[in-house]
Amino acid sequence: MTIRFGTFGAEAWWRPDDLAELPSVGGRDSAVDAMDELLLGFCAPGDLLITRYPIHPELLANLGHPIRHQAVGKPEAGPVERSIAADDRLRDAVLGAATVTPFAVLPDTARLVGQSLPSAEVVAQVNSKTWSNELVLELGLPGAGRVVRTPDELVDAVTALEFRALVKDPYGVSGRALLEVTTPGVLRAVERVLRKQADAGRRVELLVQEKLPKLHDFSGHFELAPDGTAEFLGLQQMTNKGFRHLGSHRPPPALVDAGWYADSLAGVTEALAAAGYWGPVGIDAMLLTDGSVVPVLEINARQSLGLLTLQLDQRSALTAHLWQLELNLAPGEGITDVLTAFDGLLSTGDQPGVLVLNGSTLAAPGGRVYLAIFCRTDDLDQWRRRLVAAVNAAGLTPRGMTDAA
């Protein structure tokens, strides 16, 4: 039996408190606290999943195989690991388990589990975009940016790129704490915010990268053993809206040669192992319009939604497509209404259909539901339209970006 748990938005717990912040581009998403429910998709029969909030029984039944589940009694502030540590029974279960698989290793995770995981300090280090950019430079890979540590350096870097610049927080994730700086006015606004924080004693550390002509986003996934051995798990093609992740699926063979890509990252996995990291790794990359590849945009030394889709895909003869469906809900509506809307369309991968991966806390005025659509790639658009029609027919209102997956 494997015990699974984890804190999504882990980057916020790795980020040093003294770092200056970019101007807010949306703030914290409160739904992140309930995203540990998505770990359902990793669970094998008999696994124990510990989550921050209770999981709706119909959502557990939708999974298609029996697992054990336990919600922490009263969630503590902070990572879910803190709540587990405060519960004697759950803490003892974790300490006595043969296999413990957290979503990410935070300081609270390391304190809870102990020496069977890499140190939280190492994990924080290798997840920093500063560390990955230094590695890209060291290995001579394309796509390197420039790390800036003062407002003046930021101005110089953006100006040198003639305002084709992306400015990234070293611990930003999924488009949060990332700004596209395309005009002198935007640059002046960012500079003012940073100077004010620097004058107050906060430390500036940002990555400036050129905005390249992108054709597709994709990611490569590895599992690093404690002895440094790297197992290549596969690729995932990602769909983004702007800089926000919307979904992922198996890429067509013509997108990138998987064997070549895995071989090209040997220096990256060796550096991770040398730093003292082992565990799951997702490496974000880009295919450019001229056919060239930027093999390392950033390193996610943790589990990821791409890895989740990859594992769901490997369980099915069909292709698993991760998709986000945003819904407006009336008072009293919730996940039961979503599952009812999909009656006759549900599947665990044995046939074309949809697996609902989260939504126990879904309530008015609405929110986001993650779905795994199992189908042939050519049928994906048809299935998305079918799912949108199903929720419309049930009186639920889709909103936002239902046309992307």
TrEMBL record:
Residues 133-331 form the ATP-grasp domain. GO terms for molecular function: ATP binding; metal ion binding. It comes from the Bacteria. Keywords: ATP-binding, Nucleotide-binding. The keyword ATP-binding applies. InterPro entries: ATP-grasp (IPR011761). This is ATP-grasp domain-containing protein. It comes from Kribbella sandramycini.
